[in-house]
Amino acid sequence: MDGVTKKRIIMAKMGLDAHDNALRIVSKWLKDSGYEIIYAGLYNSPEKILKMVIEEDADAIGLSFHGGEHLYHTSRLIELLKTHNLTHIKIFVGGIIAPFDVEKLKKMGVSAVFTPGSRKEDILNVIKKSFDEN
Prior knowledge:
Layout: E1 8-14, H1 21-32, E2 36-44, H2 46-56, E3 60-65, H3 70-83, E4 90-95, H4 99-108, E5 112-114, H5 120-132
Parallel strand pairs: 1-2, 1-3, 3-4, 4-5
Helix pairs in contact: 2-3, 3-4
């Protein structure tokens, strides 16, 4: 990303899900690929993520879910982003996501969904491509 402004990505988990190994690993991959990572860690609410997006002037949000609350928290976050005219913020979701929920998340406005087994190169390519499209 030489000569290009680093994209700022907030990496977080929402709700009570405390399994953050993949979130930390993907955060490291993104950092090593030239993104600026703002690691929010565990136990975030949609309201807290919205506040961080505004304060950090973030370009994207990376969310990880393993507890089955992905539709509830993601839809609330998207609703908050819309009310603050922040619909340009990209949202990437990863984790244990039922196949029938992947399309639901994308219809809500999620840019990409990564399920178990997603390869590092695929994750990085999809995220890069989503920024290149703008």
